[in-house]
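User: Just a sanity check before I run the rest of the batch. Below are the structure tokens for the first item. I only need the designed sequence back.
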């Protein structure tokens, strides 16, 4: 891989270490509706969290991701005097 025809790729997704992970009604595909999230401002939103290896395999399989870097981002935010743990997987690379 790595010929002349490619596009740059960037993605930021939630990891399973995020406080929102499984904080609600679970759907068949592993996603969930955040019906129990009173603090992040995302109540009733659709959420999917990934393990790093799982997300990378999806991107390789469906978008031909290559020549990529992975960054883990862990942050604590305050919302209404409650600590909210944000955990993201950041991937940038090339797809063809």
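Assistant: Here's the designed sequence for the first item:
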């Amino acid at each position: 891989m790595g010929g002349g025809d490619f596009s740059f790729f960037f993605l930021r997704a939630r990891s399973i270490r995020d406080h929102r992970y499984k904080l609600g009604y679970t759907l068949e595909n592993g996603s969930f509706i955040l019906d129990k999230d009173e603090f992040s401002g995302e109540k009733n939103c659709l959420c999917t969290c990934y393990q790093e290896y799982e997300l990378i395999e999806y991107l390789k399989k469906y978008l031909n991701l290559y020549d990529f870097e992975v960054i883990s981002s862990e942050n604590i935010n305050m919302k209404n005097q409650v600590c909210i743990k944000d955990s993201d997987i950041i991937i940038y690379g090339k797809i063809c």
